[in-house]
Amino acid sequence: MEFRELTNILTIAEEGSLSKAAEKLFVSQSSLSQFLKSYEAAIGCSLFVRTSTGMRPTEAGERVLEAAHQIVAIGNNLQNELWDIANLSTGKVSLGLTPFRGSFVLPDILPAFYAKYPQITIHTVEANTQTLEDYLLRQVIDVALLTYPLINKKLPTEDAYEEEVYLAVNRESPVLKRAMRDEETGRSYINFEDVMDEPFILLSKGQRLFTLAESQFEKYGCKPHVIQKTQNPETSIRLAEQGLGLAFMAGSYIHPVYNGSYKLSYLSIGREGLYRKLVFAFPPNTYRSKATMAFVEMASRLLAPGKQVP
């Protein structure tokens, strides 16, 4: 098995379709299809079956994928060690992020990182939390920025930073009349019991902000008036802007544009605020390259203060 062949097979399995895999591998679909046919003919068995939901590995395919993951992981570890010998003069880091977080976090980190380490490439992989944890377990990526606690407890972590979670409120909402100002910090906050009866826009079940919101409702023993649920944080921001309800919003998701063209105010939840911890998670029992740890160190330092929210 050649390394490139294994990469092709793994990508087909991850994407579940030849067209998506070909796009990710920067090859034509016809050439990838021809590769798979030739490879299956050479080993004498099929690796995938086509279903209504995409390409699914056969029993033989599962065995090949299992071996491929191990071989690719060994190859990546070796490459990382060789890059370290070059003392950060070259290298590559595969970074996992959820899509919405990536759109706000990466602009704060990448320019500074590339300025200091121009020869190191950051390859970003965007997916939901469960998929990213699976990628870490299979050593597909080197590190992921995730909300703690993780689903899989086997994954080692390092603290990244704590971010505050706010309530996004339309700037013309009467809710703001109930807000208070901490004279010491200048922060605007509202006690949660003062908004329990308000309509809420929540993210869908399974997303971390939904879990945090649910814990708040349980803490105060109330059944929320959920006027809308959505899978997209951007949608919840837009709906809150229109005054449909209150939305929980993580500090790293708040961009200056949301305080300008968007008609929103962000209130701390209680005088002390409501926080959640973010961590860098790594594959278990594997080598962490100097390039990976250089990125983690810089990202932790740049993100630690958090965003200032007026």
Summarize the model shown.
The chain contains nine helices and 13 strands.
Describe the protein in words.
It is a single chain. The protein is α/β, with parallel strands linked by helices and 310 residues long. Among the domains are: 1-70, Arc Repressor Mutant, subunit A; 160-275, D-Maltodextrin-Binding Protein, domain 2. Helices cover 40% and strands 25% of the residues. The strands form two sheets. Strands 3, 4, 5, 6, 7, 8, 9, 10, 11, 12 and 13 form an eleven-stranded mixed β-sheet that branches. Strands 1-2 form a two-stranded antiparallel ribbon. Strand 9, helix 7 and strand 10 form a beta-alpha-beta unit. Helix 1 packs across helix 4 and helix 5 crosses helix 9 (290-303). The termini are far apart. Mean pLDDT is 87; it is low at 306-310.
CATH topology of the domain at 160-275: D-Maltodextrin-Binding Protein, domain 2
Number of helices: 9
CATH class of the domain at 160-275: Alpha Beta
Strand content: 15-25%
Q: Which structural class matches the secondary elements?
A: alpha/beta
* Level-2 CATH architecture of the domain at 160-275: 3-Layer(aba) Sandwich
Radius of gyration: 23 Å
Low-confidence sequence ranges? 306-310
Approximate helicity band: 40-55%
Task: Give me the strand/helix succession.
Answer: HHHEEHEHEHEEEEEHEHEEEH
Shape: globular
- State the total count of DSSP E strands: 13
Query: What is the end-to-end distance?
Result: 57 Å
Largest sheet, in brief, is:
11 strands, mixed
The mean pLDDT is 87
